[in-house]
Every structure is written in C-alpha cells, then in structure tokens.
Amino acid sequence: MDGFAGEIIEISGIVQGVGFRPFVYRLALRLGLDGTVSNAGGRVLIHAGGPRAGLDAFAAALTAEAPPLARIERVERHPAALPEPGFRIVESGAGTVSIGVVPDVATCPACLAEIADPKARRLRYAFTNCTDCGPRFSIVAGLPYDRPATTMAGFAMCPACRAEYENPADRRFHAQPIACPDCGPRLWLEREGAKIASSDPILDAAELLRAGRILAVKGIGGFHIACDATNPEAVALLRTRKHRPTKPLAVMADLATAHRLCVINPDEEAALRAPAAPILLLPMRPDAGLAPGLAPGQSHLGLMLPYTPLHHLLLEATGCPLVMTSGNRSSAPQIFRNEEARTGLAGIVDAFLMHDRPIARRLDDSVARFAAGRLRVMRRGRGLAPLPLALPEDFADAPPVLAMGGELKSALCLTHGARALLSHHLGDLDEPATGDAFETALADYSALFSHVPQVIAADLHPDYRASRLAAARAEARGLPLESVQHHHAHIAAAMAESGWRRADGKVVGIALDGLGLGEDGTVWGAEVLLCDYRKSHRIARLSPIPLAGGDAASREPWRVLLAHLDRALGRAAVDGDAQLAALFAGKPVPTLRAMMDKGLNAPRASSAGRLFDAVAALLGLAPDRLSHEGEAAMALEAVAAGDAAPYPFDIRTQGDLIEIDPAPLWRALRADLAAARPRADMTAAFHAGLADAFVLVAARAAEEAGTRAVAVSGGVFQNARLLEETAARLGARGLTPLIPAEVPANDGGLAFGQAVVAAARHMA
Fold it and tell me: Which of 387, 478, 582, 690 is surrounded by the most beta carbons within 10 Å?
C-alpha cells in the first residue's frame, strides 16, 4: 500500500514493570496502527505498521508520553514487513536479563483516591497498588519480573483482580503486586506474639500511638519503629530503649503538616512528592511543635511523606506526624522478617503492626538533600535502588565489573556495558550482622541480575571485610582484582556521574572525608589529587596530625583537638591558657602526648572529618564521646550562619607535596574564643576558610595540568554549606565543578568509583 510502512522499534531502558506495553497498545490504537508489542530481555520490541506519518508520530510519542516510571535510554527503528491487522500485546520473548528493575514506588493519586472512595472495593485497603505505583524491587525474587517470581506468588488473584490484570485498557494490566481485600495480603496488630482482636488494625494502632506507645510497623522494605513525633516522653523513651541518644530521627507527615514543620521550597516539595519519596533534610521551623529530642542540636529535620496506603491510612488515623526510624537495634541491619522482628525488637516496641506479604530484601529509606542547586543523594535505598546509572559514553565496551565498596556505608556495584547498578545501602561492615547481610546481598544481586564479572574491584585497604571478600572471590574464580585507592574512587565516581569520558583526560579532585588508606601506606582524608580513571597522583594534603588511640580518636573529638592545638600553638601555650586547659581537665593528656611522641597507636592522618571534630570540640559543640558518625560535623553546620571572612590556612610546599596547614586557623579560633565571638560567626568562618584553602590549591593544580574540571567528593561534602562554599569559589575562578548527585558523595558511592576505575584499567 502506498504511503504505508512497517517497522521494528526496539526500546531499551527501564521499560518493564512500568506499564509500558499497555501504554504502547493504547497509543497504537489511538494512531490507528497495526502490530504487536512484547518484552524481550531488558527491552520492549514493537512491530508496528501503518501510514508513515502515523509511525513517525508513534515513535515520537513513545518518548514524549512514556509512563511516569519508565526511563528510556534508546529507541531504534528498523524497516520491516507490514504486520497483521490489529494490534496485540504478546507474551514476553526470551532474552538476556535486564540489569534494571524498577524501584519501589510511592502510591499514585489514583490509588489514593480509590482507598478513600466508599464505593470502591479497595476502600481503606493497605496494599492497594497499580502499574504506576507500589512495591517492585522489595518483592522481586527472580527475573523476568512476573508474579510467580515475586513474593506475591502465594496470593492467588480473585476473579475481579484477574480481570483487571488481563485487561490492557486497565491501569492494573500486568501489575504484578495487584491485590484486594478478598485475595491479597492482610494486616494485624499483635503484642507479645499474640494477635490483638481488631476490626481495623490501623485504627487501633493509631490509638496506641496517640497514647504514647511505640510500635513496629512493617512497610515495603522492612520494619520502622514509630511513635508520636510531638510527644517528648515517647521520643525520649524510644531513644532510651533503642540506645540512640542523639542521632536524628526521621519523621513522616502528610504534605500540609510537612509545610508546618519545615521550610519547603517548590523543588523540595517536588522531591518529597516524587515516586522515590525519599527522606529529605529540610530546615525546621522553630514553632513546629515537635518533640525537642527528634534532632538535638540540628537545624534540619529528616522528613518524608507517606509512600504506601498503609502509611497514608495510619497518619490520617493518628492525626499527627510520626517518627519513622529504622526497625533495628543500634548498629544492626534493619529487620524485615516477622519472626526476626518479634525477637529483635522485643523490649523496644510495645506492639507490632504486621502483614503477611514477604519482603524479598531489606531496603532502608533513601536520604537526600538539596545543595549547590541540586538534589544530592546521601543514602541510596528504597525508591532509588536499583535504578541503573549511565556510564560515560566511551565505557560502552567495558568488561563487566563487580565492585565491593568500602567498610562503612557499604554498597555493591555491578556494571554491564555502559550501565552500572549501584546497590542499596547495606550498612557498616564492622558490625558482624551487617557483614553477613552484605554477603547475602552479594549473592542476591549476582543471582538476580545474572551478573558474571570479568574483573573484581575493592578498596586498597586489605583488612576491610569487603576487600577480603573481593580477594577471595577473585582468587576462587581466577579473575583479576583491582585495588582502588579510597579517594581516587571518590573522585572517579564524581567524574563518571558527570559524564566525564576517558578521552577527556585528567581532572583535579578535592577529596574530603574521614579516613582512607593512602597509596603510601598512611592515612588520608583531605587531599587534592590529579586523576584520570586509571590512576591518581596526590598533589596536596591537609597537614597530618597523630590520632592518639587510633580508632578512639574518631569517637572522642577532644583527642584530635589536643593534637591540633599542640601542633599549632605548642604544648606550653595550651597548658598555660586557662580556657583551653579546661577543655582537657580530667583527661589523660600526659599519656596521650607520650603516645603521640613515640608513635604508639597514634597513626598520623590528614583527615578533614577529624578537623571538623576538633573544631566542634573547641567550640563546645561536641560531646566527649560521639554517639554516631558525623555528630560533631553536623553540629558545626547547624550553628553556622551568615557570611564571615574565611579563617586563614598556610599553604606551602613540603617535599613533593603541598601542605595545607590549619595552624593559623587554630590561632584565629583561640583569639576569637577569648574575645567571645559568636559561634555562628566562627563556624561560618571555618567553613569558608576550609573551602578557600582547598579551592586555591585546586585552582593552581588545574592551571598547571591544563584542565578546567575539578571533581569534588567525599563524605565531608555532605555538609551543604561547605559544598556550596566550594562550588561557588570554583565557579568564580572559571572552573567546572563535577559534583555527585545520584551517587552518594560519602562511602556509599565508593563502589561506583571503584567500578569505573577497574573498567578503565581493563579497556584498550
């Protein structure tokens, strides 16, 4: 027929489990096209025929009107014979397993309206979902993503759900978690292992919460511990029972309440309401009416909106914002199985709001904040994992890599061609139970995504549990092991997320974090590097100080303060200053000084994280012993306000390195402390001074190297004020900052950086 043509259209990306085939079906009917649509591996294949103009409109609409959860990476069109008349959805074809699975998705407006509709058969049903929302990754047991390969396999669909599931025009067409009160999962309330008789467990749970009780609530990726966020006694009791004295607690609230609790701009509201529904760090309003113990000493609150029907119904019934913190004992992994919750949370919670839909894998909530003009992910979890990340275009032929990450905030990374799959947050591997969970996750990801690596990557530190696992796995499989220096991995992650190609050459990197083993065998943590993907060269560092007591110095900031003050002012000056000497009263100062003099359990480190600890200790913003990582640095950021002239640092060449010496900073701080300068000014001047010094050195290095790109990463850059000060100064010098956003700047992004370094080392 003149003017008619046939095509095969191949679409790659996140196009399965998102309602893409029924979308194609409806679009083809609208445009009067014939053909078929099917899944094949990680792609959607369309055989379409009709008028040429209709085919062009069809191809354009595939991208422009795609379902909200789809992420299209490539559309390829090839000539083909005209198809049979009509348009059909056909069964999935064989193919390779996709590296992408849709994350768990917050409840859509249509399902929210349905659970509130008195005429709907899913009225107040806590497991209502459709193709555009609901659980995904948390219920997947195998691929391809079909109901028998999910934890919904044990729930046989009733006739009404089956009819929706099989109707291409219905929004629940092939929605694998489809359910209703007649055939789906059920809720119950229990105490001490016995179910509590209840006609509506959500209403009864809400009554307990209003009465000041603490509940375990089973959600999508695991259990939360919940209590009334406006009740000081309930919050204090939760902290006591969980042994969590100061670490901030996340709060869940509806949108109207969220605006009363925090200052929220339009971009932040959009992030809260996005399908990922992360915890977002937001400035607290002083008159929010929240319990003061939620985020002691902090200016920001971790806030999220309800993201399941259960959460919506519970918040509505309770009528107040709720603490929703991870359901675990201190430092242990989040609990996600019912039996484990009954034993693991006993003594912490007063009752359990349970359900019988199994969870395939634990998924902590994602955490993010806005900084330097963009949403920055701090913890990648429920709602974000396992969305794939694009690698720079010249990594398309890279060998598949398995990267094992670091010791803290651990995550895995699998690569396949020009895509990388960075796992959800797995926790700190110095906790034995978390280490075991890490090994389980490694087996899970490898099997689920049929990943067969050709290279294994790990941190340079040989004693990290992840590094030992990587070495054993590489040896057992006869694979090359690439050890990647900690800060090189941080910078490489920023480069790769920014699309920096191998062919683009070197960048200067500013890596500021806690501690990481350097290539010279010493402890690094505040470095300026010159990097490409294959290797890095250290140009500058913060002047090192001894960490008296080793790991103890990371937990007790006064130890680091003593080392910094002794170095900058001299011991006689420290001991002779009554204000400074009072900071160390009752402390074993002579013993620590002897350790530092002899180098006994006092490794020298150039750590930005420990510098923050020491400044916080000087200004009375840190306890003698920290109760959680980052506590002192968070307090410094919370207090800083206004603009202040930067505190000075000395910059000089020492041997083959540039030293960024904070001694002038300590002299200025001592003078300002004696003059009772406001802490808000001093902390602002500290942030500005640190940014100033490192940008000055990076700018000189960039000029010498002939590059305009400066990558910025490391856990210290989770501090929004420092990041913004640094980015602004780089921009003012005409430099291009490469800053991670989707990949955490902290150690949760290490595996991504390790993966691209290892891949580059094994490419021509």
Answer: 690
